[in-house]
Design goal:
226 residues; alpha+beta; Ribosomal Protein S5, domain 2; 8 helices; globular; kinase; Ribosomal_Su5_D2-typ_SF; ATP-binding
Length: 226
């Protein structure tokens, strides 16, 4: 049996829109083993009554993507999902499912793909790297897709994270739809400076700089309406 443990993530960290994410100490776990049936899925914890238990399951779909990449097909599979990450609360539940499926599939096949290939596949499925990267690598990650996918990992700062989990759901599609196509130049300039303060605070442990380094003018003001 293969066991995979994937953390929740917080992306768009401060001013790091679509770029900076951090892994958190909340985890989803997945167990995979062979089965006489084509597919069996059991789910415990978060999303038990919402997550599909058929071939549309995101963990299973991601698991199968690894087989497709190496020109193979999965046989009978049993998945057991134990979820701690709340759904649609900005904690990367879909990214955790994607990474869990990819990592499990890679392990199941004897690790034919390296971590960079898994990251590229995760981004292909999710559409952006800021959640899947810290889910895959842990710690704080900085990513870009311009002009090509690149990712760097920072050492994990010795900080405690306090989460405020809302009692309502916000879909990723809705959170992206509300953003403007253009932003004022002054807002873009301010965010560049704020990102510099954020990275400086994390790398030098000058945490008093987080007061500036966590301020954003590109996405938080617009999404506060949701």
């Amino acid at each position: 049996m293969i066991r995979v443990r994937v953390p929740a993530t917080s992306a768009n960290l401060g001013p790091g829109f679509d770029a900076i994410g951090v892994a958190l100490s909340i985890f989803n776990e997945v167990w995979v083993e062979e089965s006489d049936k084509k597919l069996e899925i059991e789910i415990f914890g978060e999303g038990t009554d919402k997550i599909s238990k058929d071939e549309n399951n995101l963990v299973y779909r991601s698991f199968c993507k690894v087989f497709e990449r190496v020109n193979k097909s999965p046989k009978g599979i049993r998945l057991v999902l134990k979820n701690e990450i709340p759904l649609s609360r900005g904690l990367g539940s879909s990214s955790a499912a994607i990474v869990a499926g990819l990592v499990a599939g890679n392990a199941y096949l004897g690790f034919p793909l390296n971590s960079e290939e898994l990251l590229r596949m995760a981004v292909e499925i999710e559409g952006h790297p800021d959640n899947v990267a810290p889910a895959l690598f842990g710690g704080v990650t900085i990513c870009t897709q311009t002009p090509k996918l690149r990712c760097a990992k920072l050492s994990v700062p010795d900080l405690d994270v306090v989460l405020a989990v809302p009692d309502f759901e916000v879909k990723t599609a809705d959170a992206r739809k509300i953003l403007p196509k253009e932003v004022p130049f002054e807002d873009a300039k301010a965010n560049i400076a704020n990102v510099a303060f954020l990275i400086t605070a994390l790398c030098t442990k000058r945490y008093e700089l987080l007061e500036i380094g966590m301020q954003d003018r590109l996405h938080q003001p617009y999404r506060s309406r949701l």
